[in-house]
Every structure is written in C-alpha cells, then in structure tokens.
Amino acid sequence: MSRSRMDDNAAYLQRLEALRAGVDRRLAELAPRPGTAPERLVKAVRYALLAPGKRFRPMLTLLTAAQFGAAEGVALDTACAFEMVHASSLILDDLPSMDDAGLRRGLPTIHRAFDEATAVLAGVGLLNQAYAVVAADTQLDSERRAEITGRIADSIGFRGLIAGQARDLFDRHQLRDLPSLDRLNHEKTGVLIMAAAQSGARIAGASDDAVAAVGEFGRRMGLAFQIRDDLIDAEGSVEGAGKDVGKDAGMITAVSLLGVAGARAAMEAHLVAGRAALETVGGCDLVAGYVGRLFTGRKAAA
After folding, report:
1. Helix/strand/coil (H, E, C) string of 173-198?
2. 183-220 pLDDT per residue, tens
C-alpha cells in the first residue's frame, strides 16, 4: 500500500472513530439522567443504551448524510434516535418471553442485570424517547422531522421490528424457503437499517432516486447482516460474538437452508447487490467503505 493511500486510510479511520465517539457522547446527553425518573429505570436505560457497540445504524445515518452534503452535526440527533430504537429492540428481543437471551454486547442482558419488568419499561421508554429526540431537533425543519418520525414508526411497527419478532416467534416453523426467511430477516433487521440510511440522505436533501438507491443498499445490508449473524450463531463463540450463540439450533436459518458455504455465498451476493445500488448514485464511498470494514470481522454488529 502506498504512503498516500495509507495516510488516506488512517484519516478515514480517524473520521469513523470521531463520528462514533460523537454518537456515544450525544447518547449520554440524551439518555435520562439521575433524578429525572425512578433511579432503577434510569440506571437500566443507561446500562442498555450506553453499552459498548459499533453504533452501526447511527453511523449509517451520519455517513449517508455526509455523503450527500449535509452540514456536520445536523444528523446527529436523528442518528441517536435510531440507536435508541435499536437498543430498545435488543432489550425486548432478549426477554424470557421472546428469545430468552442471557448475554448482549458482552454484558448480561438487561432483564438479568435488573429484572424483567424494568427491562420492559426501559425498552418501551427508549422507543418513546426516540420520537421525542426527533421532535425536539431544531436543526431539522418540520417537514424533515415529520418524515423521519414516520420512517421510525414504520421501521418499528407492523411492517418492521414488531412484525418480524412476531413472525420469528409464531411463524418460523412455517418457513420453507429462502424468500420467506428473507422476509422475516428484512422485518427484523433490514427495515430499521433502511430507515436509518434513508433518513441521513433525506436530511442532506438527496433526490428521490438517491434515497431509493440508499434504501436498496440498506435492505441488502440488513439481509447480509442477518446471514452473518446466522453464521456466527452456528460457528462462533460467546467470547467472539459478545452474545449467546447456538440459539438457532433446530431453527430455520440461512445456514440450515443453504449450508455454511451457501450462506456465505448468499451474504456476499447481498453485499455485491448493495454496492451496485450505491453505484447508481455515484458510489457513496463513505458509506460503502464503512460497511465493507464491518464485514471483514466476525463479531456481531449489534
């Protein structure tokens, strides 16, 4: 690698780290503080929201906004709202009545660290806080705030996370082929990723065609990440994944349908198709480069 390319790469990595650190700082500011709500609830929310993570969804919002020319910082609160939704979904997915997980991001799940009732309240509270953050964002005009609020609602509701979790709980035994599995995975994972990326593009004033291309990229990344999680569940360790593994044994997944090699090929096909979607609007090197780096590792992206 040439010296100039190494320098460019180092600068890019520094930029990514600065953005991620900015998300962490702002999340700490936006999370409820001691004295604003019951102490146990505040501690639980901050435990879940501020746990170490890649901040993939907010990073997509920030990088997409930057890619299309938004001013620095203008998308930060929207990015944090998407992380709140994601953190909430993890809390609720991990509950004993759902996936009954014991470990998340290398830490005990919130219902284990606190209790189940506190976990439910923290999860619901974070969903509502996400809406409040967008509504109070004076850097966005009213039209953008309304649009982003709608995108968040759609990504959570009966075409998104909630529908996907219900399908996972009640319909997974009915899955027979990859298209039906892709539908489940899109609802559970892809819809929120799409919304996060498209919101960044909208904040920057991107065209409808560009927003559509970013949406297709997000859809493909959601499917790819879910296959990656299937592979990690089948092959990984608790230490490497930072969460429970082996939970999918006996369930229909990309690995059970396609085998390990076939699942890897399907994941790569989604990555290629996602990059191709971005190429239609100029490549979006900031976004594509970031996602490409995430797939060079094995650890879960949550």
Report:
1. HHCCCHHHHHHHHHHHHHHHHHHHHH
2. 999 999 999 999 999 999 999 999 999 999 999 999 99
Q: What is the pTM of this model?
A: 0.90
Q: Give exposure, 97-114, as e/b (b: 16+ Cβ within 10 Å).
A: eebebebbbeeebbbbeb
94 touches 116 (CB < 8 A): no
Whose tokens are 């995430």? That residue is 294
Q: What DSSP designation does 50 have? A: S
Q: Which amino acid is at 284?
A: C
Beta bridge partners of 107: 104
Phi, psi of 108 (to 5 degrees): -55, 140
Residue carrying structure tokens 């969804």: 57
**Fold (topology level) of 3-294:** Farnesyl Diphosphate Synthase (1.10.600)
- Token pair 């990059």: residue: 275
Helices (H) and strands (E) in the chain, counts: 14, 2
Domain ranges of the chain: 3-294
Residues 6+ apart with CB under 8 A from 192: 57, 82, 85, 86, 89, 155, 156, 160, 161, 222
